[in-house]
Amino acid sequence: MNASNNPQATGQSVIVVGGGIGGLAAALALTRQGVAVQLLEQAAHIGEIGAGIQLGPNAFAALDALGVGAAARGRAVFTDHIIMMDAVDAHEVVRIDTGEAFRERFGGPYAVIHRADIHLSILEAVQQNPLIRFRTSTQIAAMSQDGKGVEVTDTEGNRYRADALVGADGVKSVIREHMVGDPARVTGHVVYRAVVERENMPEELRINAPVLWAGPHCHLVHYPLRGGLQYNLVVTFHSREQEQWGVREGSKEEVLSYFEGIHPRPRQMLDRPTSWKRWATADREPVERWGQGRATLLGDAAHPMTQYMAQGACMALEDAVTLGEAVRRCGHDLQAAFRLYESVRIPRSARVVWSTREMGRLYHARGVERTVRNMLWTGRSQSQFYDALQWLYGWKVENCLAGNTAQ
């Protein structure tokens, strides 16, 4: 939505560091409160690496609040189910229907989308917004603040000043390093991601759902992208090596070496990709504060998490909308707004970080733990599944500052 639909510009300004999904969404949310934004992105070109991501109803509630829900829906694939299979014997463990009853319950759909497509859906609105200035090839080296504002300096020595600062600069956030300075927690779990063309996807696996095959110390996920013309494939395993946090090219040979004893039905997918990107994953322990004074954090900079609940981008979108609502609630007192925002976002995102770790343990269960895992959801009705997911998918703009999305 253009700034012409926004409240009158207030004369306030915020620097947002990072032009990913969270940073772009934060810029839109702030301009909807009349705040001008200087977006600073270290990459030379705006875009996203990676492959697919999943969007729950909470993400669509946030996208709608930012005025970009229709654009995102136009590029997404709406799924029929969320499915977990046992990768050893290929039997179904869990199937959650995400059709009409799910949409009625949570007020929105479940969908999958290419990361570049969701980024583009937000970027288009940012580029049309006269309250947003966007600068690329700008890597931040230092920040400082005083009673009147915040200043950041890039690696070229350029300085940028505004009333406040939002660090949305990702998992290796420079802004977090300045404000929190805590270490990352390298998980030892390695994630391989690839995109497979439809004709190269086994026909029996062309399923309109995120399908997770849970194996001992490993799992696979696949789902359609771009109208089913492509399929996203993600494989995860516990590495034998001492991992360093980062991304590099991977090899099919390494992937295959971790998937011995897996049923042929999911295992056949491992031969399909022509190239793999390899992520050594990390998260961080939740902390009691993300910033102080006129600065705060958002998205992966605030709460990096592993991928086991598919909520990383969803949480960043929630963050952005909540930040904008906090500015409105606090009458444009940005310091008060940042602390209000943190007071509701820190416990919610911490719950997701910890829940995500536990889901990773369940997915990778072996032996007796695998047997127990496979029994956990036996006989559970769809409405019982929905009840269990209410805390996560029940998030809406109307309740985002309440600190409780169960109602």
Helix-strand layout with pairing:
Elements (H helix, E strand, L loop, with lengths): L12 E5 L3 H11 L4 E5 L11 E4 L1 H9 L3 H7 L1 E2 L2 E6 L5 E6 L2 H7 L4 E4 H13 L4 E4 L4 E6 L4 E5 L4 E4 L1 E4 L6 H6 L5 E13 L13 E5 L2 E8 L4 E9 L7 E4 L2 H6 L6 H4 L9 E7 L11 E3 L14 H18 L4 H30 L4 H8 L6 H12 L14
Parallel strand pairs: 1-2, 1-12, 2-8, 5-14, 12-19
Antiparallel strand pairs: 3-7, 4-7, 5-6, 9-10, 10-11, 13-16, 13-18, 14-15, 15-16, 17-18
Helix pairs in contact: 1-5, 1-9, 2-3, 2-9, 3-5, 9-10
Write a compact overview of the structure shown:
By secondary structure, this protein is α/β, with parallel strands linked by helices. The protein has twelve helices and 19 strands. A hairpin with a 4-residue loop joins strand 10 and strand 11 (159-162).
Short descriptors:
alpha/beta, eight-stranded mixed sheet, 26% strand, 12 helices, disordered N terminus, 407 residues, FAD/NAD(P)-binding domain, five-stranded parallel sheet, single chain
Description:
The protein is α/β, with parallel strands linked by helices and 407 residues long. It has one domain: FAD/NAD(P)-binding domain. It is 32% helix and 26% strand. The strands form 4 sheets. It has an 8-stranded mixed β-sheet with strand order 6-5-14-15-16-13-18-17. Strands 8-2-1-12-19 form a 5-stranded parallel β-sheet. Helix 3 packs antiparallel against helix 5. The longest helix has 30 residues. The protein starts with 12 loop residues before the first strand and ends in a 14-residue tail after the last helix.
